[in-house]
Amino acid sequence: MSIGAQEIMTPPDSLSTDNLSIDSLGIDSLVMIDSIEMAQDTLIPIVPFYKLWDENELSDIEMRALDWSLRWLDTTDCIAIHDTTTLPDSVYKARLQALPCVIELPYNERVRAFILRYVKRSPKQVARMMRMSEYYFPMFEETLARYELPYELKYLPIIESALNPVARSYVGAAGLWQFMPGTGKLFGLEINSLVDERMDPVKATEAACRFLKSMYTIYHDWNLVIAAYNCGGGNVNKAIRRAGGKRDFWSIYPYLPRETRNYVPIFIAANYAMNYGQEHGICKAPMEHVMLTDTICTTQRLHLQQVSDNLGIDMNELRRLNPQYSRDILPGGSTYALCLPADKMGPFIDMQDSILAYKADSLIHNRRAEIDFAKVTGINGAYRVNGVTYYTIKNGDTLGAIAKKFHCSVKQLKHWNGLKNDNIRAGKKLKICR
What we know:
disordered N terminus, single chain
């Protein structure tokens, strides 16, 4: 969860300091992103859905960003003996300085405290994230490179979601990068009743890079950008003003919200833990199993159950591969990506028509078909319930005229309504059973 999530990733307000114009956020940075397919032939680790933390279980807000994922069910079985020895400060400092980073990673007592929280208190969490990073980091790095952003920003999802793509915070942030709904939409993510692209690792990463890029054009300091990612540009601007215009994270540190003061030290600690975990005896967690996946795009409305039943793929597995479809439905109309096990891609292409037709009335059309028909027949003063159309007889109507309206015969009308002759009366209803 993002600490300070009520303001996370909100666009900066119009507050400005000397030489700091928040309105300099260019319109180009808000252009809707194009649809992006997930990389084909990808190795995806399959991990169970985890229970998220309960906010009432933790009272110290500065620990939340680091510890919340410890509430998850831990399936790792790392047999390494974890180092419990406190190293000299000079070792931690030298190791941080040795990392090939653009972002400043200074060492101080706050950074040291959070490093120890990772490598001493949370070794299994680090072991799991080290393994999951093999899947997510190449995709993060490819997107960061396209936006010319520092690779070390890939560690932000470590402290935001512990690399859980379906993580949700109690305030509504979601996904690897913990976007709030409003900011997600602002940066091009589709969020509605059927689709939540905050859960799509590729599209959420694209949106996060656009956000980070736009923040850097304002602050020109990566630690300030990271702080703004946590608490919002408005709070960073206020801290800059209260610090007399100083624009260095450690200068404005006392004026930031408490949780944001810890956010940058935790980010530095995450860089350390993910790079030097093995130096503390932490091994990568074993993979539950590895699956080769592929992605296909479709514009057809599709239910994951249709795919599951026809291709023999477990529904939970499909949901893990396609977490952005919150109600198991690809809406259709626009292009949507469907991720499948690679060995199921050929059968899906071969069987696509039959898959789309399978239980379409109950899984896809459902009440939507009745509503559409009611709109058509409403011109004739009719409505449809459970497959039967009901028409209210008007003055001047005859059975012949009504039969013509509904493309049936007078004989059928009589049969459906138990009529013995052609006499009808205004105000009564007729059933049309077709």
